[in-house]
From TrEMBL:
Similarity remark: Belongs to the outer membrane porin (Opr) (TC 1.B.25) family.
Keywords on record: Signal, Transport
MF annotations from Gene Ontology: porin activity
Protein name per the record: Putative outer membrane porin protein
GO CC annotation: membrane
Domain of life according to the entry: Bacteria
Organism, as annotated: Proteus vulgaris
Length: 447
């Protein structure tokens, strides 16, 4: 009896000890599982950055006959998370943007810095904003030497075919999908987008015609070839039944210091465009822009010169080549004629330059300028501008992600209605402009 009782007591004592022994073992397994999860590239190869940007942009102009000041100043921030790929296949990205109003004048909205929360361009409408500008799922796959990539959701798109973005305190982002297939020097890309959030707005917007009719989608694709001495890109796209566009870029590098680029842009009007009233059209049926540029780069200085010409006929008015494929979208356009709404009028030829010199490893100074001319009813209408700029990037390791950019300069234009000169006794009226901007940006890599 005593032996049985002792045996029972031993068993009762051993069982709790075994149970207690399993607790650390379970903790070890749990910790090992957590470690394994976070060692997966989905998390271990993730990055997060915080960017701060202070942006002031100013324009004083007389294009409408009266003097107008377009002024906006804001402080922005962005938190950008980019995951790695689970099983080397699937991941996700999220970016949050915000902006705070620091100052504004009437007509501030043309600067694309602050949110216009109201009708018109009254300075009291100027506000900051916050938004999840990017949130998307991404996929990648490799088969032999062929690489596949695709992304679905809200994302920023830069020069994919005829679609591009623009950035102030945050970038323009789009809702839709993009994808690419790469094999060696050859890449095929595509995009299909249905909505947009502008660079200075948290609002989800549909694409629209100039007259306000909704456009279902914008589709685009391109084919790229990249090698050491020659890059080529052919892009094609359409804003649904509104505009159809193709682009051709060639970029040659015959020697290390020299870079030569050419661009051809063609835009064809479709049914939704053709039924608009004349005052809503930029051109009648077809618009073209041709450009060539040459850049010389050395260790301490560089200079780039470009020549552009536009053909955009419009009956009884001065036509214009539109960069965007619709309202609320941005179009791919890399010509040096890119400057506000100028230098792409029908029959206009423009000479552009941008040169800079590295004064110190931290400080670059330079100037940029455009001079253009087109003919209108016997007038040689001339426009242009010249700007001085500087860029400071400190070498101190604690400030290595800081950039300070400043630009200032005058310009000359003409009084206009739309893009057409206003004539008095057969002569056009000159108009002066003055523009400036300051951008201070700092980026933190959190992990």
């Amino acid at each position: 009896m005593k032996i049985k009782m002792i045996s029972i007591i031993i068993i009762l004592l051993i069982n709790p000890i075994k149970t207690l022994a399993k607790i650390p073992e379970n903790n070890i397994k749990e910790n090992h599982f957590i470690d394994t999860v976070f060692e997966d590239p989905l998390f271990s190869q993730s990055t997060m950055s915080l960017s701060l940007k202070n942006y002031w942009k100013y324009l004083k102009e007389e294009d409408t006959g009266s003097t107008r000041v377009h002024n906006a100043w804001g402080q922005g921030f962005g938190l950008d998370f980019q995951s790695g790929y689970f099983a080397n296949i699937i991941g996700f990205d999220v970016a949050y943007y915000g902006a705070v109003k620091l100052g504004a004048s009437d007509y501030f909205n043309s600067r694309g810095v602050l949110y216009n929360h109201g009708e018109g361009n009254n300075k009291n409408n100027a506000e900051g904003y916050s938004k999840f500008g990017q949130r998307n799922i991404k996929l990648q796959y490799q088969l032999a030497d062929i690489n596949f990539n695709t992304r679905w959701g809200w994302q920023t798109i830069k020069n994919v075919g005829v679609i591009s973005n623009s950035t102030r305190l945050s970038p323009t982002t789009y809702s839709g999908w993009t994808g690419s297939v790469n094999y060696g020097a050859l890449t095929l890309r595509g995009a299909y987008i249905e909505n947009a959030m502008d660079r200075n707005s948290p609002d989800k917007k549909q694409f629209q015609t100039n007259s306000g009719e909704y456009i279902n989608h914008i589709a685009s694709s391109d084919l790229l070839w990249k090698s050491n001495n020659l890059n080529m890109q052919y892009g094609y796209g359409e804003s649904d039944n509104y505009l159809r566009r193709s682009i051709l870029f060639l970029n040659m590098k015959p020697i290390k210091e020299l870079n030569i680029g050419t661009q051809v842009y063609t835009t064809h009007a479709l049914d939704k465009y053709k039924i608009m009233s004349t005052n809503k059209r930029d051109f009648d049926n077809n618009a073209w822009h041709f450009a060539i540029d040459v850049k010389w780069q050395t260790d301490n200085w560089s200079t780039k010169w470009g020549l552009g010409y536009t053909n955009a006929n419009k009956s009884n008015e001065v036509g214009f080549y539109p960069r965007a494929m619709s309202k609320n979208s941005r179009g791919t356009f890399t010509s040096m004629a890119f400057a506000g709404n100028d230098y792409m009028r029908d029959g206009e030829i423009v000479l552009s330059t941008m040169s800079d010199y590295t004064l110190t490893p931290e400080l670059v100074v330079g100037f940029a300028g455009n001079i253009a001319q087109f003919n209108y009813r016997g007038n040689h209408v001339r426009t242009g501008e010249i700007n001085a700029f500087s860029r400071w990037v400190p070498a101190n390791s604690k400030l290595k992600n800081l950039t300070v950019w400043a630009m200032f300069g005058p310009g000359w234009s003409y009084q206009m209605k739309g893009k057409t000169p206003v004539l008095t006794n057969g002569k056009y009226h000159h108009a002066n402009t003055l523009s400036s901007e300051i951008v201070i940006e700092y980026k933190f890599n959190l992990f």
